[in-house]
Amino acid sequence: MGDTRIVVDAMGGDYAPEWIIRGAVEAVNEGAKAHIILTGKEAVIKGELAKYTYDTSKIEIKNCTEEITCHDAPVQAIRSKKDSSLTVGMNMVKSGEADAIISAGSSGAILAGGQLIVGRSKGVKRSPLAPLIPTTKGYSLLIDCGANVDARPEHLLQFAKMGSIYMENIEKIEKPRVAIVNIGDEEEKGNALVKETYPLLKECKDINFVGSIEAREIPNGAADVIVCEAFVGNVILKLYEGLAKMLLGEIKKAVMSSFKSKIGGALIKDSLGELKERFNAKTKGGAPLLGLKGLVVKIHGNSHNEEVKSAIFQCINFSETGVNAKIAEKLSEEQA
Amino acid sequence: MGDTRIVVDAMGGDYAPEWIIRGAVEAVNEGAKAHIILTGKEAVIKGELAKYTYDTSKIEIKNCTEEITCHDAPVQAIRSKKDSSLTVGMNMVKSGEADAIISAGSSGAILAGGQLIVGRSKGVKRSPLAPLIPTTKGYSLLIDCGANVDARPEHLLQFAKMGSIYMENIEKIEKPRVAIVNIGDEEEKGNALVKETYPLLKECKDINFVGSIEAREIPNGAADVIVCEAFVGNVILKLYEGLAKMLLGEIKKAVMSSFKSKIGGALIKDSLGELKERFNAKTKGGAPLLGLKGLVVKIHGNSHNEEVKSAIFQCINFSETGVNAKIAEKLSEEQA
């Protein structure tokens, strides 16, 4: 299999272009089977690349004159800023010049560009944003955390199928356990959406549905694929991030509060390192937009080189396992 | 002001009756200005009370022959088990024989009993369940975490008013900052419910509305009153609980993983104690059902004596500050 052609939006994110470009170079230097296309202001990118030694045949630059910022209205920006690093990259994925695009830029613009430029595969009603969240058992896929709120039951059913294909192929989990976020574990509980969706999931033969999951059980890894409507998914994702950050911060404060506890803190530092790393969500790649005609991966706005590198390896894995093709096949079947 | 008459459901909860009754006795022995009515099987309660020394004029027993369990369908249980410790207690609040009821029993039955037996105050469209959640700045009121999902904008507006009255009177916060849970902080973001509710909150003169709050900011104490629909509130509350428990558990595991870190753990134990206590949510009282004709307080199913005691003091505070009357006055005004 040849190199996966991956656009990296060099201008998107809090630490662009410096740390974004550094991540791309590191991936190449660590043997990523990828051909990287950096989109953005050529002079700036050239200046950054000049800092490193790498196989220059593996990284090319696609010059663009515009940038989309977080202050732009997403849909409008995608439509009007035709020469932005994000729009140009998205169009390369659409035309087949690239297999994937990674961006740490405006979330709204990434989601809009995925739908409007790259486009959904046949049969896919909505393209969900599906990050992996850390649990005591490993990682669970939280689907959907995107911007299309007020989903219908048939959307959630498709999310369940797409999420299952993802976890089976990328995370190598056999028969991933699918659960729907609910406020109790009985079938008759929940809001109107959950009540209507539950029987669809229960009857679906393509997935291993294990029933409702209460939010309390999510951190325990009680399901591999956690299905929910985007508003709820967004709340879960953001609260996960905020609460983990806050608790780790409060622990640090407690440790620094006395001489005795400072010494204690020094002694547990190594053991806590792995935990902190997982909860700082710096290494488990980006969140893919599933069900599109190409691969779009959103990484956190505050991403550094590590996240970019990790997302590049994730794109290669995604591309080599043919997840998008499998999703398109499964969901277009349904239409027939 | 005379003693607050508080029913304590002696049969509800994982640690009933032993630890529930112990909490009631301790409250009395610590000088609570309360008259306690323990509802449940008289012989059992007598046996427990015999273990303690206390002012016997402060605690009475109301014998009941039935119990509502978590396996009972809530509404049906409230209607059919007329001689259960919960139903009898609720009826005492309704008739005015008691000012308040505290229960660690079936959440569904407590919520159903509050609405069906005690009843909503005039003008109150829905009675929200409003727990306090820990933040870096103290506590925020999360309203609504109850069982009535799929709320309408006018319900959320009332929640905002009730929550403000609560935080002003009970937590003594001047002009409590009210925010609505959203997936971005711009006014035009959100699902249909949030978009319709936002202008109502913005125009409301009775509250100090500060706009949207992303779930990420909740642990930072970015608002005092956090308004949301019950499904979302439930997810936030349960995730808070589950994630805090999981993280503290993982930290413990990390500390126990080596000899060096065990010593470190022993040195930071005291400093971490306060944090653990706050996040184990053992001491900040129960969650009141607001807007009823009497006071109904739900405490966690796994409550011990500390939670019962804390809820008793909370009921006294609630009763003495006249929060329910203030809510009834404010919301009935609106109707006029």
UniProtKB/TrEMBL annotation, chains A, B:
UniProt-recorded Gene Ontology molecular function terms: phosphate:acyl-[acyl carrier protein] acyltransferase activity
Main subcellular location: cytoplasm
Reaction catalysis annotation: a fatty acyl-[ACP] + phosphate = an acyl phosphate + holo-[ACP]
Gene Ontology CC, one term: cytoplasm
Keywords, ordered alphabetically: Acyltransferase, Cytoplasm, Lipid biosynthesis, Lipid metabolism, Phospholipid biosynthesis, Phospholipid metabolism, Transferase
Coiled coil: none
Membrane-spanning ranges: none
Keyword Transferase: yes
Pathway involvement of the protein, from the record: Lipid metabolism; phospholipid metabolism
Pfam families assigned: FA_synthesis (PF02504)
Leading EC class: transferase
Superkingdom of the organism of origin: Bacteria
Location within or outside the cell: Cytoplasm
EC nos: 2.3.1.274
GO BP terms, alphabetized: fatty acid biosynthetic process; phospholipid biosynthetic process
Keyword Transferase: yes
Family stated for the protein in its record: Belongs to the PlsX family.
HAMAP family: PlsX
NCBIfam families for this protein: plsX (TIGR00182)
Protein role: Catalyzes the reversible formation of acyl-phosphate (acyl-PO(4)) from acyl-[acyl-carrier-protein] (acyl-ACP). This enzyme utilizes acyl-ACP as fatty acyl donor, but not acyl-CoA.
Assembly with partners or alone: Homodimer. Probably interacts with PlsY.
Protein name: Phosphate acyltransferase
